[in-house]
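Fold this complex.
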Amino acid sequence: MGELTTPPESKQQPRRPRVVIVGGGFAGLQAARGLARLPVDVTLVDRRNHHLFQPLLYQVALAVLSPADIAQPIRSILRRQSNAVVLMDEVVGIDVRARQVSLGSGARLDYDYLVLATGATHSYFGHGEWEPLAPGLKTIEDATEIRRRVLLAFELAERQMVEQGWHSPLNFVVIGAGPTGVELAGAISDIAQLYISHDFRHIDPAKSRVMLLDGGPRILAAYPEDLSAKAEATLKRLGVEVHTQMQVTGVGPGWVEAQGERGNSRIEAVVTLWAAGVAASPLGRMLGAPPQVNFDRRGCVIVDDRLNPPALPEVFVLGDLAHFEQDGRQIPGVAQPAMQMGDHVAKIVAADLAGQPRPAFRYFDKGDMATIGRMAAVADVKWPFKAHMSGFPAWFTWVTVHIFFLIGFRNRISVLINWAWTYFNFTRGARLITGDQSLPGWKEQTEAKPAQSKTEAAD
Amino acid sequence: MGELTTPPESKQQPRRPRVVIVGGGFAGLQAARGLARLPVDVTLVDRRNHHLFQPLLYQVALAVLSPADIAQPIRSILRRQSNAVVLMDEVVGIDVRARQVSLGSGARLDYDYLVLATGATHSYFGHGEWEPLAPGLKTIEDATEIRRRVLLAFELAERQMVEQGWHSPLNFVVIGAGPTGVELAGAISDIAQLYISHDFRHIDPAKSRVMLLDGGPRILAAYPEDLSAKAEATLKRLGVEVHTQMQVTGVGPGWVEAQGERGNSRIEAVVTLWAAGVAASPLGRMLGAPPQVNFDRRGCVIVDDRLNPPALPEVFVLGDLAHFEQDGRQIPGVAQPAMQMGDHVAKIVAADLAGQPRPAFRYFDKGDMATIGRMAAVADVKWPFKAHMSGFPAWFTWVTVHIFFLIGFRNRISVLINWAWTYFNFTRGARLITGDQSLPGWKEQTEAKPAQSKTEAAD
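Structure:
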C-alpha cells in the first residue's frame, strides 16, 4: 500500500502543516475543532466511527439509554469543518523520526504535528483471563455486554425458580469503587429494587445483593473524604454492600475471591463487573522508549506543560493517555481536562504559526461529580463556587451538566425523554438482551443444586 | 431437571387450564393478552426477552432507529396480567400425547392448550453457506449487523480513497423484492443519496449503486400489479436498479452471481443482503408428521379454520408459522393476521370454557403497505375504504398506522423524534458501527488493485 498522496501544491503558498490526530474522544475531537480556523490540514484517525459520551456509558449498561443516545459519528460532528478529514482506521506504528504514522490498512500518513489521544483501557493487573468473566466498561460493546449479563441474570433466576423451585443467589459483584464502580453498583441496585421487581412472578429481584469491593480504605478515593463517606452512606441506604480493604485475588465463572482484613473469602457472583484498573492505550509506547519518552506505571506518557514528551515538541499527548502534573498532583483522567488539553493544542499550533512562544497548559478544575443511583450524587464543586454537594442537589447539577455537554440536539432530547420515562414510570426503556444467552458459571450452578440434593438424599 | 411443580390445588375448584404460548411476537403476545380475563394460567415462553416490532426493523438496519425504540421486554408488556408468567427459554421438544413441551434448560411444561407462534426465519434455499455473506433481517442482531456492513462500506471506501486514491465500487445488492427487500433497497439509496453524502470528503456516496434482484416477473408480487409498477418506478427514481427475472445462483465474498434472461452475470457487491426466502420455524415439525400434522413446502403448519392442525384441537398454530387459506388464498405472513389469530385463540378458549362451539377464524384484511425510501410508499387499502395508494399519501398513512401500533408511549415519542430528526435534518441518528471492522471480500478487493497495477507495470 502506498503513502498518502499529497495534493498538488500551489507554488505561491507554503505547504499547510498536516496535523494527524489519533483518537476521536473528548481530547482528540476538541483538538480537531480548535484547529478549524487555522491554515492546517487535519486528519482525525479513529478505529471507531463514533465519538462516545463516556460519562453516560453506564446508563447504556444499565438499560436506561440506547447506544445511539450517547454516540455520534465523528464524521458527522466534523462534517462542516472543511479542513478536517476523518479516517476510520487503526494506527499500528509511529515513526517519530520520519514523522509518519502507519495504519492498519497498510498506508502511512505524514504529519507535521501529531496529537495522540487514544485514552485508556481496562487493566486486569496481569490477569487478562479475568476479562471474559468480569467485563469492564469502556466501549458500546462493553455496555451492551454488561446489560446482557445483568438482565439475563434475572431471567435465568426466574426460569430456574419456575422450573426447579429454587434459584441461584442473585449476587452482583462490582470490583473497584471509583466513579464507574460506584455508578454501576448504584444503578444495579436501582434496577433490582425499583425498576424490574414487578415484572417477575417467582423471584424477588429486590432480594438481590450488590457488593462493591475496593482494595483501598475508602470508595471514591480521588474525592474529598466527606464526600466518600456520604457516597458510602447513600450506597448502603440503597442496599449496596460496600467492602473496602478487599483485594481481589481471583475471578472465576460464578465466583470472586478476595483477601480482606479478616482473611480470604470466596463470593458467589452471578455477574461480576470490573471497574478497578485502568491502563494507558498501547499507542503511547509507539512513541519510543525512555529517556526520550517517559511513562508512568500505568503506561501514560509523561508530558510537560506544553503537552509534549520532553524531546518531541511536534507530538502532543492528551487526555487519559497523558500524565500531566499540576501543583504536584496528577490531573484526573476525565472529560474536563481532556477537552481543555484539546483546546490547548489548537492554541499552541496557532502560536507556532504566528511565530509566538507556546503558551503553557494549566488545567482549570471546575470539580468532579459521580452519581449514586436514582437521584443521588456527590459533587466536589470548585467553580463557580466551592462546595461539597451530595444527595439530590448534586444529582440535579449532574443531570444539568451532562445534558448540556451532550453533543447534538437530538441526543439531548432523546436522553431527557429516556430519563423522564425511567424516573417517572419506574421502568427502563432499553431492557434488551441481545447476543448469547448464557452466563459464565451459570450452568455449573444450575447443576450443582440437584447434585447436592442427591448427596443429601444418599446420606 | 424435574417437571414443573404444579401449585397445590384447592379442592373446591377444578384445576385452571394451563395455556403454554411459545413465541412472543405479534401472534403469541396477542393470544396472551386475549386470555387475560379468563380463568386460565398462561405461560409465555420465548428465547428472547423482548417483543420486536418487526415492521420497523429495517429502520434499525438503516440507522434511523435504535433497537430499543422497537423492542420491549415481553415481561414488562405483560407485567399487569396476573395470570401470565413469562419464561425466557427455548422449546426443544413437544410431546403432543403427554401434552408437554421440553425446554432447553431441561425442564418440561404441561399444557392443556398449546399455542405455537414462533414465526419464520430466513431460507437460503439449501445454501446455508450464503448466510454470513448475505445476512437477512429478522432479529435485532440481524439489523445491527446490516447497519454495520452498510455504514462500514462507506468508511472503508473513504479510507481506500484517502490512502490509495481509488476505491472499490460501492455496489449494494439486495436479493428478493418483497416488502423487506424493497424497504431495504429504498433505504440504502436514501442513505447514500441524501443522508451521508456531505460527511465524506473523498468519496461520493451518491454514486453508489443499489441493485434489487428478484427471480419473479415483478417486485412486490403479493401486491396488485399497478402498485408493483408504481413501486418500481419510485425505486428507479431513487436510483435503485431493479432486476426482475434474475435468479441468484451464487453468493460469495464481494460478489453475487445471477441467472437472468440474458444469461449469467457476476455482480461485484460490497454488501449483499438477503430478503428472498422465508422458512417456517422448526417448531412446527415437533408437532409430528403427516397425516396427523400437515405442512406446506416452506414448513408452515396447515391449520383449519379453528387454527388447529386437524388432529390436534388443543394445539393452535398462529402467525407466520401457520398456513391458513381463506377464499382459496393463503393469508400473508404479516402482523395483522398474526394479531387477529392471537385474538381468536382467546375466543376459542373462552368458548371451550363456556361449553360453546368454537368460532371459526376469518381474517379481516385491512390491506398491506410497504415503504419505498423517504416519503414514498405503496398501500393496498381494503378497509375502511378500498384504494390503491402510492407516493406521499401512502407514506403518511404508513407512518400513522405504524406509530399507532407501536407498543409503549416512550417508544412512540422516541420513534417520532428520530423520524423528525432524520427527515428534517437529513441525518441519521443511529449511525453506529459496532463489532468487527471487516466486510466479507473487502480485503481481497483492496489487495486486488495494487496486484493488478503491478502486473500492468511488468507488462
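Confidence is low (pLDDT under 50) at residues 444-459 of chain A.
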